[in-house]
Amino acid sequence: MFGLLDKLGTTAAAIAGMIVGAAATFAVLSLYDAWIDDPGVARAAREGFVAASEKLALEGQIEEMQRQFKLAETAAASDRARAETASREADDAWKRYEAAVAADGGDDGCRVSPDDLDWLRKSGQPAGGGVP
After folding, report:
1. Number of structural domains the chain divides into
2. What angle, 0 to 180 degrees and rounded to 10, lies between the N-to-C axes of helices 38-103 and 114-124?
């Protein structure tokens, strides 16, 4: 009888030892994982995430700058075209004005001489002609 109890006790002790050993191993590995492994993995993940997010942000900035550059080019081309049109219109208006002054032969007692027209040309238009 004592032999049977002895075998049962030995078996129970062996099972209890295995359970305690597994629990101790689990506790040690859990502590290792929480204190050593996980912070390293998290740090490595954050490093990769920071680099990727910085790259994405810089790419977004580049795309925005390219979009703004294209808009500026379009606006500059439009402004140049309007300036050329305004310059042509100003030149045409100036020529019409000179022609009207030269053709003025009314009876108001005012006569325009060629010297007057020369003075008008010199003083009315900026150097180089066109719109300043």
Report:
1. 1
2. 170
Rounded Cα distance, 122 and 18, in Å: 112
What residue type is 25 in one-letter code? T
The pTM for the full model equals: 0.45
Q: Which domain holds residue 83?
A: 2-103+112-124
What is the tens place of the pLDDT at every residue in 31-75? 887 777 777 777 777 788 888 899 999 999 999 999 999 999 999
CA 84, CA 75: separation in Å to the nearest integer? 14
Q: Is the residue at 131 inside a domain? A: no
Query: Taking a C-beta distance cutoff of 8 angstroms, is the pair 91, 132 a contact?
Result: no
